[in-house]
Amino acid sequence: MTSQSQGIQQLLQAEKRAKDKLEEAKKRKGKRLKQAKEEATAEIDHYRLQREKEFRNKETNVMGSQGNLSAKIEEQTTEAIRNLTSSYHRNMESMMKKLLSTICDISPEIHPNFRPAV
User: Fold this and answer.
1) Of 83, 79, 82, whose CA–CA distance to 71 is shortest?
2) In the 3-class helix/strand/coil scheme, how is the chain assigned residue by residue?
3) Where is this region: Disordered (predicted)?
């Protein structure tokens, strides 16, 4: 009987050791998963920062050329306004004379379709 109880005790102890090893393995696995998650998060953050930096560089290059384009357009607009203003001042007097002559110099004529009443 004692050998049986001793055998049972050994089995129970072996079972307990196996259970402890399983729990320890689960803890290690949990730690590894947590560490892997943290590493993945750090890697994602690093990649995101790198891509954002590249985007900002490209954006600066594009916006910089747009800034030059904007200055060029502003210069062209100013030149066009200057040309229109000078053209206005050159032609204003003659146009005013034509307009006033058309309005003030009325020559009364009978319309060709007019029929006098009989």
Assistant:
1) 79
2) CHHHHHHHHHHHHHHHHHHHHHHHHHHHHHHHHHHHHHHHHHHHHHHHHHHHHHHHHHHHHHHHHHHHHHHHHHHHHHHHHHHHHHHHHHHHHHHHHHHHHHHHCCCCCCCCCCCCCC
3) 1-39
User: Amino acid identity, residue 60?
Assistant: T
Q: Rounded distance, CA 10 to CA 2, Å?
A: 12
What is the structure's pLDDT at 82?
Answer: 97
- Please write the tens of the pLDDT for every residue from 57-116: 888 887 766 667 778 889 999 999 999 999 999 999 999 999 999 889 888 888 888 888
The pTM assigned to this predicted structure is 0.43
